Amino acid sequence: MPARTLALPGGARVPVVAAQWQHAYGVVTRGRVQLELRDGTPGPVLRRDAGFWLRGTGVRALHNPGRRTATVRILTPHLEARRNDMISSTDTAVTVRRPHGFRRLAVTGLVATLAAMVVTTLAAALARGAGVDFEIPDGGGATIPLGGFAVVTGFFSLVGVVIAAVLLRFSARPARRFVWTAVALTVLSIVPPFLVGAAAPTVIALVGLHLVAAAVMIPALTRSLRAGPPREA
After folding, report:
1. What is the mean pLDDT of residues 74-78?
2. Which residue of 67, 104, 106, 124 shows the fewest CB atoms closer than 10 Å?
3. Do 13 and 56 have their domain in common?
4. What is the value of pTM for the model shown?
5. Do 109 and 223 share a structural domain?
6. Helix (H, G, I), strand (E, B) or coil at 67
7. How far, in Å, CA of 41 to CA of 35, rounded?
8. Which residues cross the membrane (predicted)?
């Protein structure tokens, strides 16, 4: 099986010549390679060991979104092998298969969300048992119920999972960007408890609960993003 290596320096863009990819199969051997779709919009970011066909897909260029050189091993099967290809391609669109990465992220996110809900609710119950009333004067003097902590934690944890999935799909460095985004959102989330007129113990407890949820979700999702999905296009 004839093969050649295509090197893409950091930030480089290489146009796709259809004739050269008629029967070629590419494998990313180093770095990350992003497909540029036929309308010029950014496509999937392929990572190391990801394989892809480009024949008839309309992908018009390969782009290296990182700073370091990326390499693609281009394989051209012999005619006999082409008839028995185990990997199928279509002539109309790019097919991106990323079940392992997104499935892993979804499962990790769901488990971490449930864990965050349980841990946060238990921490709130312990704080209430220690005398924290969780009364919100600016909310009409209402007291936050234990179930409310679980609901709010679950909602914002799932928002974090969605953010991680978007970064996994579009970012060349999803784990790093997720950490920065999640930390920034966590910092913003601890501001409201200081603005509702609650007593000091309640404010401290609310801030602590935000940090507890973040301590469960951020490491779990970051590890999943760093694992990286095998992708094919």
Report:
1. 74
2. 67
3. yes
4. 0.58
5. yes
6. coil
7. 9
8. 105-126, 146-166, 178-196, 202-221
Give yes or no: residues 67 and 170 share one domain.
no
Q: Are residues 200 and 109 in the same domain?
A: yes
What is the count of structural domains for the chain? 2
Query: Do residue 107 and residue 222 come from a single domain?
Result: yes
Query: Taking the CB of residue 169, how many other CB atoms lie within 10 A of it?
Result: 16
Q: Position of tokens 């185990």?
A: 86
By CB atoms closer than 10 A (0-12, 13-18, 19+), residue 157 is buried
Once rounded to an integer, what is the mean pLDDT over residues 207-228? 91
DSSP state, residue 232: B
Instruction: For the beta carbon of residue 128, count every other beta carbon within 10 angstroms.
Output: 16
Q: Give the tens place of pLDDT for each residue, 23-74.
A: 788 899 999 999 888 777 788 889 888 888 887 777 888 989 888 899 998 8
State the burial class of residue 201 (Cβ atoms within 10 Å of its Cβ: 0-12, 13-18, 19+).
middle
DSSP string of 140-179, one letter each residue: TSEE--HHHHHHHHHHHHHHHHHHHHHHHHH-SSHHHHHH
Q: Residue 74 sits in which domain range? A: 3-82
> 48 with 30: CB under 8 angstroms?
yes
Region of poorest pLDDT, from 13-17, 47-51, 138-142, 165-169: 138-142
Q: Does 104 lie in the same domain as 10? A: no
* Structural contact between residues 34 and 45, judged by C-beta atoms closer than 8 angstroms: yes
